[in-house]
Design brief:
heterodimer; A: alpha/beta; Aconitase, Domain 2; Aconitase, domain 3; 3 domains; 5-stranded parallel beta sheet; 19 strands; globular; B: Aconitase, domain 4; 7-stranded mixed beta sheet; 8 helices; binds iron/sulfur cluster; Aconitase_4Fe-4S_BS (chain A); 3-isopropylmalate dehydratase large subunit (chain A); amino-acid biosynthesis (chain A); Acnase/IPM_dHydase_lsu_aba_1/3 (chain A)
Chain lengths: 470, 217
């Protein structure tokens, strides 16, 4: 009898080629996603060494971090951005790698595009030079971010040398309250375990509240596993997973699909499997979350107040809190619901899929953004998400409410293109990082769910989405 | 990649936890298609008082005198001392590139984020994990010792302080070997080329849907 294994252990064994040195495994990589920021130096390395791409069909490239989200017909103004995009085009052309170009309707954020196309599927190893590759783990895949040297290694060898991670089971018991979403689950978890809570671990999300999530909700949750320090996040395969995958452009069909589904159904942790660590969270007790500081673990609920650093015993943490409050321009004791906002951003690989846009549109329908809001952006995760939203008329709902309706890309999640915060501006954002300067030098980020961001845009300050309807 | 064996240098104290990769190298500087030239922007947001405009005017910016990197006593420092969870955030290898470009060869902290930790080894930057108590000791010694230097002995896996104390650290044998010999990891992996090819052939036969080719659509 084979010993009970966790989902991670099954995926590890499935891709294990051989041991290299002390306890390190050489693992086969099924899928590699590329974008413009972390690949130029990898292709350069490949060329300098005279190496080829090992398996061209395993790769898919799409520019997202640095792309304009409006006026795509014009030439990109910033010469550095332009060169970076041209470099990706040229490298893909030279090595024969498929790229969804800026004018391809399938272009979008890599982590939205991969699952949407069925390019990433259950049971695969998926890597990308981007930490939020964890997103694809929602499919029951082993997906994680890598650095540029590893991008080059994957291009040249279709493998990675890896240390086996520890396993952590995160069980969400019970069910979420109305208006509370996967984003709130992720933020509440990070508040609980901290941004280093998952270091060295792969997290598997389980429990009734995870089973009840749609695939898109699971992607939101896995996306933020990296913010909890984990190498990867994953969810076991069930009917929701399979229903999502069937019919996608690169997904199998016919006999090959039957064979795939039979295999995918095995991608769960065995009931007897032992995890190195187990964390349990009561989903019913999660209130809508809002970050107040400069790390995703600096988070509280909409019912909370900005904490006082004096109450923190650990001196390093206390200093960190004080620095965060100074940067955020907040005083201890201020009610989260009283924090006024300048901008709102709905987008990013965390929350830019069709369900996110539907949820936000339902909140703003028939209303208008508050006078104090200088800019409210909706940036769909891909061209296909955008087209779907337009087919449903969501773009009109947003535009009539005073939002700008943009083309797909990372946009104000990291502000590498022209969409960024000015110093001192305060933003409700559906993205995943509130680090200093993340959305623009001096910009102040509060991470929230799409519903909370939409409601904040209408009210001009944070409001409890559970009381906002009606 | 440069080999790493012994290293001695001035230590710069960055007394913060959760130093993220956006802080180490902000996204404004990720547009480069090169591996070098990031040094002047290491900790850019903390390091200068005025905002970045362009490369030409960068030398005219006002350094923030309160930020450690700008203090004269740490000029030429090659070892960075920090707190928990150093390097959290994005996978950008630009972070270790910027540290190296500035002249840093060793980062000492109680813990590191996983991707940053692995990225360091690919570039000859040594991340050293000591206990929180040992890191406390180093911060305390540094505060009371002008020109504080440490000696890092990779073969012996230890950090030696000026008073002769030595703290040992753990390091994976493979990663240690790569650093000591400046090995090309891709070259090493390609020694297993036949085994990889055989594994791949078997895998694509067993799981035929993996053959889906994006170029075919
Ligand atoms: S949307 Fe933000 S977090 Fe996601 S890949 Fe783009 S920059 Fe990274």
């Amino acid at each position: 009898m084979t010993p009970a294994r966790t989902l991670y252990e099954k995926l590890w064994d499935e891709h294990f080629i051989r041991e290299v040195g002390s306890g390190l495994g050489l693992l086969y990589i099924d899928r590699h996603l590329l974008h413009e920021v972390t690949t130029p130096q990898a292709f350069e390395g490949l060329k300098l060494a005279g190496r080829k791409v090992w398996r061209i069909a395993a790769n898919l490239a799409v520019a997202d971090h640095n792309v304009p989200t409006s006026h795509r017909d014009r030439e990109i103004a910033d010469p550095l951005s332009r060169l970076q995009l041209q470099t990706l085009d040229a490298n893909c052309a030279e090595f024969g790698i498929t790229e969804f170009g800026l004018h391809d309707p399938r272009q979008g954020i890599v982590h939205v595009v991969g699952p949407e196309q069925g390019f990433t599927l259950p049971g695969m190893t998926v890597v990308c030079g981007d930490s939020h590759t964890a997103t694809h783990g929602a499919l029951g895949a082993l997906a994680f971010g890598i650095g540029t040297s590893e991008v080059e290694h994957v291009l040249a060898t279709q493998t990675l040398t890896l240390q086996k991670a520890r396993t952590m089971l995160v069980r969400f018991e019970g069910s979420l309250a109305q208006g509370v979403s996967a984003k709130d689950m992720a933020l509440a978890l990070i508040g609980l375990v901290g941004t280093a809570g998952g270091t060295g671990h792969v997290m598997e999300f389980a429990g009734p509240a995870v089973r009840a999530l749609s695939m898109e909700g699971r992607m939101t949750l896995c996306n933020m596993a990296i913010e909890a320090g984990a190498r990867a996040g994953m969810v076991a395969v069930d009917d929701t997973t399979i229903d999502y995958c069937v019919g996608r452009p690169f997904a199998p069909t016919g006999q090959s699909l039957d064979q795939a589904v039979a295999y995918w159904r095995t991608l769960t942790s065995d009931p007897e499997a032992v995890f190195d660590r187990v964390v349990e969270v009561d989903a019913a007790r999660i209130a809508p979350q809002v970050t107040w500081g400069t790390s995703p673990e600096m988070v509280t609920s909409i019912e909370g107040v900005v904490p006082n650093p004096d109450g923190e015993h650990d001196p390093v943490r206390r200093a960190g809190m004080a620095r965060a409050l100074a940067y955020m321009g907040l005083e201890p004791g201020v009610r989260i619901a009283d924090i006024p906002l300048d901008k709102v951003f709905i987008g990013s690989c965390t929350n830019s899929r069709i369900e996110d846009l539907r949820t936000a549109a339902a909140v703003v329908r028939g209303r208008h953004i508050a006078p104090g809001i200088q800019q409210a952006l909706v940036v769909p995760g891909s061209g296909l998400v955008k087209a779907q939203a337009e087919a449903e008329g969501l773009h009109r709902v947003f535009i009539e409410a005073g939002f700008e309706w943009r083309d797909p890309g990372c946009s104000m999640c990291l502000g590498m293109n022209e969409d960024s915060l000015n110093p001192g501006e305060r933003c409700a954002s559906t993205s995943n990082r509130n680090f200093e300067g993340r959305q623009g030098a001096g910009g102040r980020t509060h991470l929230v769910s799409p519903a909370m961001a939409a409601a904040a845009a209408i009210a001009g300050h944070f409001v409890d989405i559970r009381q906002f309807h009606g | 990649m440069d080999k790493f064996t012994q290293h001695e240098g001035i230590v710069i104290p960055l007394d913060r936890a959760n130093v993220d990769t956006d802080a180490i190298l902000p996204k404004e500087f990720l547009k480069s298609v090169k591996r070098t030239g990031f040094g002047p922007h290491l900790f850019d947001g903390l390091r200068y008082l005025d905002p970045y405009r362009d490369e030409q005017s960068n030398a005219l910016r006002r350094p923030n005198p309160d930020f450690v990197l700008n203090r004269p006593e740490y000029a030429g420092a090659t070892i960075l001392l920090a707190r928990e969870n150093f390097g959290c955030g994005s996978s950008r290898e630009h972070a270790p590139w910027a540290l190296l470009d500035h002249g840093i060869r060793v980062v000492i902290a109680p813990s590191f984020a996983d991707i940053f930790f692995s990225n360091c080894f690919k570039n000859g930057l040594l991340p050293v994990r000591l206990t929180a108590a040992q890191v406390d000791t180093l911060f305390a010694q540094l505060a009371s010792t002008p020109g504080y230097r440490l000696h890092i002995d990779l073969p012996a896996q230890c950090v030696r302080t000026p008073d002769g104390t030595s703290f040992t650290f753990e390091i994976d044998a493979f990663q240690k070997d790569c650093l000591l010999n400046g090995l090309d990891e891709i070259g090493l992996t390609l020694q297993h080329r036949e085994q990889i090819a055989a594994f791949e052939a078997r895998r694509l036969a067993d799981r035929p849907w993996l053959r889906a080719d994006p170029a075919g659509h």
